[in-house]
Queue: 2 jobs
Job 1
Amino acid sequence: MTSLPLIPTSPDAPIGGPARRAAMPPRHLADLDLAGRQALVAELGEPAFRAKQLSNHYFGRLVRDPGLMTDLPAASRDRLADQLMPKLLTPVREMACDDGATRKALWRLHDGSLVESVLMGYRDRITVCISSQAGCGMACPFCATGQAGLTRNLSTAEIVDQAVYLAGVAASGAVAGSPPRLSHVVFMGMGEPLANYSRVIAAVRRLCAPAPEGLGLSQRHITVSTVGLVPAIRRLADEDLSVTLALSLHAPDDDLRDELVPVNQRWKVAEVLDAAWDYAGRTGRRVSIEYAMIRDVNDQPWRADLLGRLLAGRLTHVNLIPLNPTPGSRWDASPKPVEREFVRRLREAGVSTTVRDTRGQEIDGACGQLAAAEVAS
C-alpha cells in the first residue's frame, strides 16, 4: 500500500461531518448544460462563447484550475471562475495499492462532509467508482457506508467533479499499464444513486454528452447501482438512456433480504426483479445482479438454486462479490469452495455468473468499504 501526501485543510473543519446543517454547494458549470452556461455567461456581461471556452478546459482538457485558462482575459477569468467554477472537492488524502492501479481519494466538501471515490486501472480500460451521496441512508448492515448513515445528497457537479478529477489522474499517465483515458464510470461509491435521482441522471447526461458539454463517455460504459427503489427503477426505464442497471440483491428470499437490505421491507424481491426485467425489456440492456457472498448467511446451495430459478432465461448477469471486511462486522466472506459451488449451480441453471475482483481491500476501497473516515497522518 502507498499512502500519497496528506493535503492540509482548514484546522477548524470538523472530522466526520458538517458543523452546521448540510447545505448544497454553490452552482458550478457542471450543474448546467451548455445552453445554461451560455445564458449565465451572458447575464454576467460576457460573450456567450466564453461558456464554451470554460467547458472545453474543464471537460475537454480536464483543467479544473481557472488560473491555467490563459486564453481567457484575466479580468473575465476571475469573475467567470467565481460564478461557474467554485471549488467543490478539497483533497484530504489519496491512497494507492495494486502497484498504483487502484487509487482511492477522500474529499472534503464545502460544508465539511466527506466522500470517497476510487480509480481502477486495467489493461484495457480505466474505471472510476464515484459517490452520489455523503453517507447512505439504506442501512445495509454489512456495508460500511450504510452503517455511517446519510449526511446529504451530492449536487450534480459534486458527482461529476469526482470523475473529471480522476480522468485527469488517468490522463497524467499515473496508472501504468492502463490507457490514459477514462472510459467507464460506476455509481457504486457512497450512497444510493436512485435516492438522489434527478442529480444522478443529470450527472449521467453530463458525463456522456460530447465535449465541450460533457466528458464524452459512452452511455453503455456507465453503471448505476441500486438496492431496489422500484419507482425510481421504473422511472429510469423512461429516460431513454443505455446505462447498465446494477441491482444489489444479496438474497433471493424475502426473509433474509429484509435483514440484509432493509428497503426490501417495502419492495419485496419479486417486485424489485419485475422492475429490473422491465428495465431490461425497455432498454435491451442486461441487468447486473450484485450478490455479496457472506459466510453461512446467504451462500447456501439452496439459495443458489433459488436464485438460479428466479433469473433463468432473463437478460441478466450475476456478479458475485466476496464480502469485503469492514470494522466491527460480525460477518465474513464465504470460503472459496462454497463460492465455487454457488457459481456452479448458477451456471448450471443457465445464468451467466462471474466473481468480482476484490481489488482495493488494502486501502478500504473495495465494494462496501467506503466510509470516508479521516485518520491521523
Job 2
Amino acid sequence: MTQLLVIREYIKNFYTKYEEFIVPLLKFVLGLILFLTINGRMGYMAKIDHVAIALVAALLCSFLPLGVMVFLSAMFLLLHTYALSAECVVVLLLAYIIVLVIYLRFAPKAHLLLLLTPLLFVWKIPYAAPLAAGLFGTPGAAAAVAGGVVVYYVLAYITGNAQAFGGGESDTMLQRFSDMGTGVIENKEMLIVVTAFAITAILVYAIRRMSINYSRAIAVLVGTLADIVILLIGDLIYDANFSLAGVILGSIVCALIALVMQFFQFNLDYARTEKVQFEDDEYYYYVKAVPKMAVAVPEKRVKRITTQRANQNVRHSHGKGKTRK
C-alpha cells in the first residue's frame, strides 16, 4: 500500500511540475483518438477521412478549450452522415439539438464526459461513464452521460443501416426519414441504458457525498449493483436482448477502473478521523475531519566526489599508514 502511495505522489508531482505540457498533450491524444475513431467507423466522406485531417484537428484542439473538440467531433459526424444520406443528417442534427439543450442546461462544463461516453462504448467499457460522472462530477453530469449514450446509439443505428439509407431513391426520402426517426425513438436498448446510467450517476454522487467512512468505495459498489439491476430489469420488461454475462463482467471491470481512478484522485486515511465541536454566537458546529492519505516521496541524493577531494583522501590514508609503521 505504501509503495502505491509513493507511486501516486510521484505521478502527482510530475503532473504538477509539467502540467502546462501534459494537458495539451492529453487533449491532443484524446482528439486524435476521437477523430480517427469517427473516420474509422464511418468514413463516408472521403475528403475528411485522412490521418492528416485528424492530426490537424487534434493539434487545434490541444490548445483550445474542450468545447472546441465537442464542436469539431460533431462536425466530423455530420459531414460523414451528409455524405451518406440527407435524412440521416436531419435525424442526427435533431439528436444533437436535444442533447445540447439538456447538456447546456444541466452540465455545461462536462465536456469530457460527453466526449468519452461514446468512446467507452466503442472500447466495450461503457459502464465506467456513470461511475466516473458520480465520483468526479455533479448531479448534472448525468445529463452529459445520457447525451453521450444518445449520440452513440443514433450513430450505431445509422452505421447499422447505412446500406438502406444510402441506396434509396428520391421518391422514398420521406419514408426513409420516417423509418429512421421511428427506429431511433423506439430503440428500447437506448432508453434503458439512458435511464440506468442517469440513475447510477446520481446515486453514486449522493452516496459519495455522505459523511460515512469509505463513502466513495461504497458509492462505486452500490452504483455498479444498481446499474446491473436496472439494465437486467429493463431487459426483462422490454426484451432488449442484453448479454447477462457482458453486463455483469463489464460492470465489474468498470468498477475496478473507477476504484483505481478514485485511489489516484482522492484517498483518505479514516484511521485518523477527528470529530470537532465548536460554536459561535449563532451556531454550534459538529465537524468531522478526515485527513488525506499521503506519504513523503523519498528524495534521491547524488554525492559528487571531485578529483581534488579524492586525492586528498588518498594522501590522508597514506599518511595514516606511515604513522603506523
